[in-house]
Specification:
Layout (H helix, E strand, L loop, with lengths): L1 E8 L4 E3 L6 E3 L3 H8 L5 E10 L6 H13 L4 E5 L5 H8 L6 E5 L12 H14 L4 E6 L2 E3 L4 E4 L4 E4 L12
Parallel strand pairs: 1-4, 1-5, 5-6, 6-7
Antiparallel strand pairs: 2-3, 7-8, 9-10
């Protein structure tokens, strides 16, 4: 089994830049993470972009779509910035014969308190365990359908759009 990792940047790949606490997108953090873990599968890391997801445009997203379509592997993890991850995921829905999982991090992979390692591990687990092809988001211990998810910036998490609020249950 072989997994292709496509990287486009985002917080997961950010590195400390200067004394003013500014960051720039660096090399793919997933490369270091996979090198340091005893993984039991073959993989290929392909860097497509080094951008913050807020700087991505339609042309960048089409580059991701084409890379997924052309991938010789059907199992694909995309590391992506969390701000527009959902937009990219929705464009990938419907590509046949692929199981694609997008993931990212709220803290750079080089930070001690990063969630990157956990999220990448979860994304790999979704690829290995998922019986069906499709597109999924793996963040913070949850798996989401890109058509029914939103990023809650206030809480710093992703959440289902289908969750019923306590007040809506009382209103017919």
């Amino acid at each position: 089994m072989r997994i292709r990792f496509l990287t486009v940047g985002g917080t997961i790949d950010k590195v400390y830049f200067d004394k003013l606490s500014q960051y720039e997108v660096g090399p793919p953090g997933v490369e270091r993470i996979l090198r340091e873990l005893p993984v039991a599968f073959e993989y290929e890391v392909q860097s497509l972009l080094r951008k913050d997801s807020l700087d991505m445009d339609d042309q960048d997203r089409q580059l991701v779509v084409q890379a997924v379509r052309r991938s010789p592997e059907r199992l694909i993890v995309i590391t992506h910035g969390t701000d527009t991850m959902i937009d990219t995921a929705r464009l990938l829905v419907g590509i046949p014969d692929r199981r694609v999982v997008l993931t990212g991090a709220m803290q750079p992979a080089n930070f001690h308190n990063t969630d990157a390692i956990f999220n990448i591990g979860q994304a790999i687990g979704v690829l290995m365990a998922g019986p069906e092809d499709g597109v999924f988001l793996a963040m913070s211990g949850r798996v989401f359908d890109p058509q029914r998810v939103r990023k809650n910036r206030e809480k710093g998490i992703f959440e289902d759009l289908d969750v019923i609020s306590p007040n809506s249950a009382r209103n017919p």
